[in-house]
Design brief:
With 114 residues, the protein is mostly beta strands. The chain has one domain. The chain is 11% helix and 32% strand. The protein has two helices and eight strands; from the N terminus they run βαβαββββββ. The strands form three sheets. Strands 2-3-1-6 form a four-stranded antiparallel sheet. The chain has a two-stranded antiparallel ribbon with strand order 4-5. The radius of gyration is 20 Å and the shape is elongated.
């Protein structure tokens, strides 16, 4: 397992789930919560909640999670990652993905004669 931290945005989380305890519980479905963004914690920005979580990058990051509220109701919540690091499962290093080749095209431009 290889861990890294990523920022997660929750755009459609209802406001009653914005408490630190609730958000931590929700984000534990993705990984280990590290810190809640100051604007989220103080409800300065209510367009989305933002949390830094530690994830196992060797596993695929989920696009949505299912939340069970206090009354037993279930709702699906989409997950948006501000940045997803590229990781090679073969050499276990960051910066590239195994089997993905970059198409580098070299355009030769003649040098202007002066």
């Amino acid at each position: 397992m290889v861990f890294t931290s990523v920022d997660v945005q929750k755009h459609s989380a209802p406001l009653y789930l914005w408490g630190a305890k609730s958000l931590s519980k929700i984000e534990s479905a993705l990984g280990t919560p590290v810190v809640i963004d100051e604007c989220t914690a103080n409800k300065f920005r209510i367009s989305y909640a933002r949390i830094l979580i530690e994830v196992d990058i060797t596993q695929e990051l989920p696009k949505e999670i299912t939340i069970t509220d206090s009354e037993g109701g279930k709702m699906k919540q989409p997950v948006e990652y501000e940045w997803k690091p590229t990781f090679c499962n073969k050499c276990q290093k960051f910066g590239h993905e195994y089997g993905v080749k970059k198409n580098l095209v070299k355009n030769w431009v003649p040098k202007a004669m002066t």
